[in-house]
Amino acid sequence: MAVEKKRPRGLKGSAKAKANKKSKVDETPSEIPENAQTVVIDKVVEEGDEVGEAAALYESAIEKLGKFSQRDAAAALPLLRGTIHESDRILRNHESSSPLPALFYFTYGAALYELGRLTEDEEFEPYLDAAQERLNTGLELNDATMEDKIRLALAKIWLAQAASAISQGDEQVDTIPALSTQALATLDSVIAKGDVPAKTMIELADIVQNHGDLYEDFTSREVFRVWAEDALNKVLEKEPENASALSELGLCQLSLANYHLDHEEEDDDEEEEEEEEEAKTVLTQGEQKAYDAILNSKGYFETAKDLLVKSNQVSPQILSDLAETLLNQANLVLKEEEQLEIYHRVVENIKEANALIAEKNLDFILPEALTSFLEEFE
Description:
Blueprint: H1 12-20, H2 36-42, H3 50-65, H4 70-93, H5 102-118, H6 125-139, H7 147-168, H8 178-191, H9 198-212, H10 218-238, H11 243-268, H12 272-277, H13 285-310, H14 316-330, H15 336-360, H16 368-377
Helix pairs in contact: 1-9, 3-4, 3-5, 4-5, 5-6, 5-7, 6-7, 7-8, 7-9, 9-10, 9-11, 10-11, 11-13, 13-14, 14-15, 15-16
């Protein structure tokens, strides 16, 4: 059946929350889990190496977060708390005249940053301040093996601090804060060395892109979107079939499309009644820009999905992203027959995601807009 055509809505609101924090997770006990020692052993830490044990806990937490599920994020919380608990204890008991290694301060600071992003009902800024203090202490040790990791971690903190200032401001921010500029310059200097792993590059691109979504000014937003896309393309130059990089590029283009649609809506209010009376035959300039970006986004998501299907790693997330992009495309298509065909593809991807969630007992929740569309369409 045909459904009522609705103008696509942007992701602007959700982006503002995401730029500062990861998705919130249900709190779990803050003690180190019973299998924490097993985690340490699995990481092959030398007996008595307390700094190494704390680092192993942190690395295990990051692995959990990298799986992008609510369940794994919840499992990461006690590991992060355990990392901080152990770091507190190590620092408190340290009596040697020799300083603790830079790895210790990196682990301590990075864990504070990640915990602050995940912790429900707590202010992020105190975590950021404490994390920055630990990382700066580590940087002062001039350990060449840790310097770049610490600088990347500091850049993420600066972006988060700038984002907090923007989100809490009463007035629209058009200019880019000095902290954001400093963060990008730091990222550029580290990445220029060519030693940043692909996974880290993709994570940084995601953070930078989401930060850019906070700005109302298009020129300011573009600084961050272009940076993110350049970083992702660097990954694809070495790994052309990196599905994660392709997916992030799709999100960059989807963000661009939603910006144009959001601002098109602001300009269209006066013409709304007139448009209802007369069938539309051409897209506005803003809608055409959005449509072009949507097509780019769809291409990235489709390629990423194909690669994930081949490797048996397809996820509800890629299906959800593709469905959202197709829905945006359909809502801009002027021919009803073509629109209906695309709507059917939206439904296929939503149902495929639901089937995957049920089959693997995943805790992924589809966006409400997609579930509502499915109910309305059927």
